[in-house]
Amino acid sequence: MNVEISDLTRKFGRTRAVAGVSMQTGAGVFGLLGPNGAGKTSLLRMMATVIPPSSGRIRLLGRDPDDYRERRQIRRRLGYLPQNLGYYPGFTVVEFVEYFALLKEMPAAEVHRAVATAVERVGLGDQARAKLRTLSGGMLRRVGIAQAIVNEPELLLLDEPTAGLDPEQRVALRAVLREVGQRATVIVSTHLVEDVGAACGRVALMDRGKIVFHGTPDELTARATGTSAAGDAPLERGYSAVLAEARS
Amino acid sequence: MTIAALSMPLLRLELRRNPTRWMLPPIAAVFWFISFRASTAYPPLWNVRAMSMQTSVVTVFAPALVGAAAWMASREARRGMTDLVACTARPRWGRQLAVWAATTGWALAAYLGCVGVLYAVIARQAAWGGPLWWPAVVGAASLPAFAALGFAAGVLRPSRFTAPLVAIAAFLVLETSVQLIHWDQPYWQVSPLVAGPWEIGTDQGVATFYRYLPDLPIAQVTFLAGLTAALLGGLGLTAGAGGRWLRRSAAAVTVAGLLAAGVATGWAGTGRLDPHGMIAIPALHDPADDRPIGYAPVCRDTAIPVCLHPAYAGYLPAVADALEPVLREVAGLPGAPVRISQAAATYRSGPANEFGVGLAGPAMTGTPPVFQLLLPSQLPGPIRPRDDLVSTIRTDAGRDLVAVLVGADRDPSPAQQAVMAAILHTSTARLDPDTAVAAQRLTALPAAARHTWLAQHLAALRADRLTLEQLR
After folding, report:
1. From the candidate CATH numbers 2.102.10.10, 3.40.50.300, 3.80.10.10, 3.30.2130.30, the one assigned to the domain spanning A1-61+155-213
2. What string of DSSP letters covers chain A?
3. pLDDT tens digit string along B13-55?
4. Do B9 and A68 count as a contact with CB atoms less than 8 A apart?
5. Chain B residues closer than 8 Å to A111 by CB
């Protein structure tokens, strides 16, 4: 298992953003659904070793992120795209991705090839030398994905990766996720239920800091059966039904 | 430590995209306007121009560099990159050092370019000597320290306002700190603004006849290196900077830096004005530096040859022309010097930040006698125009020479005063009437007759055995 979480909590002051989450997942694309404020981003930030948990146990890639040496080893094999992607406007696409390849301590000899591959995979080959300040929001999002996958991560954490992407780009991104998910754990946090349906083999639904559903997209769809849950698509209705049940 | 933390590819990338490089043209322009023009306004002597450069170059580079470093240090927070970089494997300290090194690297490149141009100009114009490296080294050593200072401010207060605020603060602190530099507070001499005894200022008299003393520059470079290490090491102490080993290394660097800075400040506190016009620090002083530098003087074939140190060769025609009338009068007289020779100035410090500059011994020395000359430009004070220099030499050096010759260097008799006025062809208005009449009588004689009379009566005049009536 690449991600093993047990009774994980995270508090910000008096607010419990994550309240006793437990989950395990191996290779494959894992969808993390939930309404705003459900705790998805906090959970993802803990898995990305950005913030430590307040309590509970977490093991990533078979290592303990509490230990500095093991945390560094995890980080070398980690890809992370935060919800709000910051960037250095004076960097080119290639330089930005190269910067993260170097921060992830990739061997210098491999950086050039890995950067070119990552940039091509997100469809920015023709923009490789463009300054980031000249790119659209969707292109910047793809640059963020490129930096996340440049080190061929074994654990890829993406927070709202399709935000700002046009339909064509979203389809292309899902293909990338499926490809990466064949050998690595990909956890995608999103509001967009159709992304989960199209790309994820398993899905968890969070609400108020807790996981209220864990299963396959089909199982989530099935939860709508016999209910009057709202939604335009079957998966959306399953999502609404689970939330309604959790809150009742 | 830093080599491991600073990988070259990362440093190359930071250098390529460091915005400090866009500040270089305006910095170079300010350097030209302030440092270059001020330095080249001085006569083409390595000592005075290089020391002037050191004093001004720090105020040119430091504020801009402090601001640039603070701007770069706050980059991650300003650009919302904190989460993204926090989950990367490279320790934060290593990441920060790369940004600091790139910022410092560009500033150093600009500094070396500016100083290189200035030194090339001095090398073309200077008549003697070679580049004076210590002032340039102190200036260069100050850049990493100021960059570290700005960087630390940017890390601790990551905001878009930090950079302009610390740049202005650096400028104000530098400008006001000079008010604290006095002999009675010698610790402040560790400031890179100080190139020599502060009360004396930029003085043409030092480091020509004797070596440029490295004592104070060594203390300053040690202080700046220590300050740099302490500031950068301090950044590695914070939680999240890196692992235990890295934080221990940072602590060691910080302690070593603080120790070095403290020791260097202590050294500066013991600095004293040495006889050759520089600051000597007992713990660092090498007695070999007190030996004079050998040189072949440049001479002018006047009635009595006038010889100057080759560094002052440009002054020789003016000095010789100024002294020529007096030298014609006294050449060949008993006890007259066989040569006028420029001497090194000797410096003495006194209480209450006072100091004195003059000859080490009597003006006339040796057998056959040589008259020791101090040029006005060897004395502290403003740069003198050529006409002023000529008149000062004629009145001061010429009068001193004649006074020594006629024995009037202390409490001159009326006869000695009259003879001096006649030889120097000076106004008799301030003499008493009898003395003035005697002086005019002697002046009216043909030069050859006056010379013959002087040759016959100089011994009696020097022994104060002549009266005004005995003067022709």
Report:
1. 3.40.50.300
2. --EEEEEEEEEETTEEEEEEEEEEE-SEEEEEE--TTSSHHHHHHHHTTSS--SEEEEEETTB-TTSHHHHHHHHHTEEEE-SS----TTSBHHHHHHHHHHHTT--HHHHHHHHHHHHHHTT-GGGTTSBGGGS-HHHHHHHHHHHHHTT--SEEEEESTTTT--HHHHHHHHHHHHHHHTTSEEEEEES-HHHHHHH-SEEEEEETTEEEEEE-HHHHHHTTTTS----SSHHHHHHHHHHHHHH-
3. 999 999 999 999 999 999 999 999 999 988 888 988 999 999 8
4. no
5. 9
